[in-house]
Amino acid sequence: MYKILIADDEKDIIKLLRLYLEKDDIKIYEAYDGMTAMGLLTEYEIDLAIVDIMMPKMNGFELIKKIRKTNNIPIMILSAKVETADKIFGLELGADDYITKPFEPMEVVARVKANLRRFYNLNKLKMNQDPEIKVRDLTLDTNQCVLFKGETKIILTSVEYKLLKLFMESPGRVYTKEQIFEFCWGEVYVVDDNTIRVCISKLRNKIGEGEIKSIRGLGYRLEA
């Protein structure tokens, strides 16, 4: 049974999502402000967090920053803020998905399942598969879903992890934006350069600006 935290100061929204998600045998933890949400994340082993931006005591952006200091669980933003700048900022902080209000409950359920599937299926390794992927001073531990640059541990979001795993399994290979989008988000590619650029930028900040190269007119590659 997966455990999901829903942090939103609108109780009706939590009630609605609980109604739909519990049908799929998902346990829901409720928080109506950011501080309570952080306490629940500390106390329980939460598998995914759905976070509103405009909450009392600690807003959603602040909550995401705190989560990402120690945890790489999937985070979905559910917000009435529809501006592109807010979406990009949320993704830059470490969110894996952004849904605007008003929303269709079944779409939220589908995205929850997709994020859980993408993240937790990464841990289902074959017995004979080496759990570590190494490229120069980068070591990706596929059991813990964490990256080491030398001796320094680097926390990755689920999308960052999946993208880096794709690159590190074939260093030097050029991946198109279409391939990256469909692999990391599990959806047919539509023009969404901002999403990919944000993820690439975040990875560069964590592993080094020169590690991932932009190939004009083609896509991206990890230096071999």
TrEMBL record:
GO terms for molecular function: phosphorelay response regulator activity; transcription cis-regulatory region binding. It comes from the Bacteria. InterPro entries: CheY-like_superfamily, OmpR/PhoB-type_DNA-bd, Sig_transdc_resp-reg_C-effctor, Sig_transdc_resp-reg_receiver, WalR-like, WH-like_DNA-bd_sf. One of its GO terms (cellular component) is cytosol. Pfam families: Response_reg, Trans_reg_C. SMART domains: REC, Trans_reg_C. Residues 3-116 form the Response regulatory domain. May play the central regulatory role in sporulation. It may be an element of the effector pathway responsible for the activation of sporulation genes in response to nutritional stress. Spo0A may act in concert with spo0H (a sigma factor) to control the expression of some genes that are critical to the sporulation process. This is Stage 0 sporulation protein A homolog.
